[in-house]
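Batch manifest, entry 17 of 40.
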Amino acid sequence: MNTKADLLRELRIDRQPTPPPSRRGLWIGLAVAVAVLLLAGLAWALLGGERGVEVRTATAVATGGGSGATSVLDASGYVVARRMATVSAKITGRVREVLIEEGMAVEEGQIMATLDPVDADAQHDLAQAQLGAARSQAESVRAQLVEAEAQSRRLETLVQQQLVSRAQYEQAVAQRDSLRAQLATAQRNAQVAGEQLRISDIGVDNTVVRAPFAGVVIAKAAQPGEIISPLSAGGGFTRTGIGTIVDMDSLEVEVDVGEAYIGRVQPEMPVEATLNAYPDWKIPAEVIAIIPTADRGKATVKVRVALKEKDPRIVPDMGVTVSFLERAPEQADGDAPRGVRVPAAAVAARDGGDIVFVVAGSGDDAVAERRSVSAIGAGDGQRTLVSGLAPGETVVLDPPAGLADGDRIRVTAE
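Output type: structure tokens
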């Protein structure tokens, strides 16, 4: 019984008032609540707000600029040189000196290499000696002829006075005529010897290899001591050239165009060329000619394209992409406005004018920059802007109504 009575007393409600909380406990609770709020705000800033507004973007494309042209066909090809030569000697000989290196610029007629001139010099000395001998012989015959002519004149006078026989006079005349013929022969021999000397001079000059035109050396093929021959005599141990030079002013582009699309290409058609090594550099060009033959295996036709800009960055065998352009009919008069083309979704109306938002920065630091633009024309979901935007800049598509200048954005698609 006592146990049950004790249990019932424990179940009674204590009516005494709860002591009030202390002032120190209130301050601790308030501090904890503020800390929780700060942490929540920081987490939202890091995980949510600072990520920025999700937007889609597009790139502004140049239009007008006097060209007013659109691409009707894209193709790929290579830079080639119309003037390129592997320079060799006209004779077979041993290389004595090579005066070129790769990348070296040479002028027309500049010496590239020399061959051993021993044989050529010997031939030249022999021809010079033969010329001297022929001239000496001619002088000897000329002296004899002078004496024979004088003798014949004396006998002519004596025969008229009947002091000598006519037979003696006729013998002197015959001797004179014979010497005249011998002198003519000696003079011709001297002339032949002179021509042989001139040919030997050419042989000596052939031991010097000169550049046939101005250009840049792209390959050095021979070294001193090697045998060089234009006929490649001697197998693999004989060089056929000293080096290869290219006329950089003759660079052009060769493109293989499919047979199904060759009808879109015309001579003198404007072209825009882009080197694979410099994708942001647009080179104006023009179709030179369409080679009137097709490649049966590849079903393509070769097209020659002239580059209108010369630059040291353009070198042979570079890969290049070309766009064949066709002038739009409404812009054929050359009055097309200069500007850029953007999707119509990028242009918004704010404060009574047209604006676009340009993406400034990249990655997590990307922000929206508001620009006022002058938009003209609309069609095919595109708008042309004549001011306020440059080609290549990135614009925001369908900008949210609450987007403002300087707001952080996050690009989700382009």
